[in-house]
Amino acid sequence: MSGEPPPAGSYVYGVTVAGATPPPVAGIGARPEVRLVADGTLAALVSDAQRDEVAAGARALRAHARVLDAAIEQGPVVPLRFGTLVGDDRAVVDDVLAPHRDRLAAMLDELGPLVELAVRARYDEDAVVAAVVAADPAIARLHARLAGVDPEAAYYQRIELGERIGAAVEARRAADADELLAALEDLAADVSLGDLLDPHTVLNASFLVDRAHLPAFDGQVRAAAAAHPEMAVRYVGPLPPYSFADPELAG
Amino acid sequence: MATTSVVRRTPSSSSLYDVLDLILDKGLVIDAYIRVSLVGIEILTIDLRIVIASVDTYLRWAEAVDRLVLEDKSKSLDEFASDMTRGVAKGKTGGALEGAKETVGDTVRDVTEKVKGAVGRGEDEG
User: Fold this and answer.
1) CA distance B2 to B20
2) How far apart are the first and last CA of chain B?
3) Does position B54 have pLDDT exceeding 70, yes or no?
């Protein structure tokens, strides 16, 4: 049960409550039907898969997301990390469900009607630079002075200009991130902040929100995006609580 | 006043790229198992992070400001936003970063496109 994943077996998408309906969407590979493998009050969402089908790339990743998306529409689901393939249904019970029964049951219970919503806000580079130049006369003057000057000749001034713009964007980014969070967090039971992958990302956050608050949260996201035309806002969900599941269950 | 496009909530399976990090890096790990890793994609996302971390940020900002036309200083943010929308629609690639050497920014974009390409394949499958 350790070492390498088996060449074929039962692929586990996540864990839900026994008695749930299997999500009516296709899972991974040539035998995509998703079934429930139950143990007591828990049930794993499982389909037959080959290791090569799982490793094959985007198609498997998309199927993993699709099954979990459909499952969270029906009730609480604890998502497993992509790529969990065990030997057979018996191993699903013996190695996945049974050793972690209490923790999984508690997580599903706490989860109840909560779903994850991912919000990513990113500056449009030209728009934010324009805003920064417009807001800071010193930057605007330096910019004006360098206009038309051979970039090679003005190398060090260009670094200075870039440094000032970078600092101004950074200051704006911190303030904007705080503002976005404040506008969105009051409806959330929990917030998870992800890495800012590049200098343009303002916010990479996931919110754990009660399904009943979805329309209100949608409205808040729309309002926040409308207040910041210099950002592109991506809004994804409802997701199973990827960001709020304990990262690891110690055996 | 320019109209702002309305942000819509989308399911993850139709905007996989946006939540790639969640699906690959989050979720419960069952300790007893070595997971099957996805050929290609994990490597690409790691590359993306390394490249982004090494971006020569200052010169990049200086290049960005070159794209500003001085007369445009008085433009309102709304106008910039509509410019931005057009820019995005055009795919806004290399041309603006005129000149000499390939910037790290381009490399970031290339890697991003590669990841997008890899994930985007099979977009229309059931």
Assistant:
1) 32
2) 41
3) no
Rg of chain B over CA atoms, in angstroms?
19
Among candidate residues A95, A93, A85, the one with its CA nearest the CA of residue A11: A85
Q: How many CB atoms lie within 10 A of CB A21?
A: 11
Residue from A49, A42, A39, A51 nearest A90 by CA: A39
Contact (Cβ atoms closer than 8 angstroms) between residue A87 and residue A9: yes
Q: Using the beta-carbon criterion (under 8 Å), do A236 and B11 form an inter-chain contact?
A: yes
Query: Where are the domains positioned within chain B?
Result: 38-120
B67 inside 8 A of chain A by CB: yes
pTM value is: 0.76
Tokens coding A216: 């209100």
Task: List the single residue in B with minimal CA-CA distance to A238.
Answer: B11
Would you call A103 exposed, middle or buried from its count of C-beta atoms within 10 A (0-12, 13-18, 19+)? middle
Q: Tell me how crowded residue A138 is: count the other CB atoms within 10 A of its CB.
A: 9
| Closest-approach residue (CA) in chain B for A136 | B73
Question: What's the pLDDT band for A152 if we cut at 50, 70, 90?
Answer: confident
- Give the pairing type, strands B9-10 and B29-30: unpaired
Give the span between the Cα atoms of A77 and A55, in whole angstroms: 23
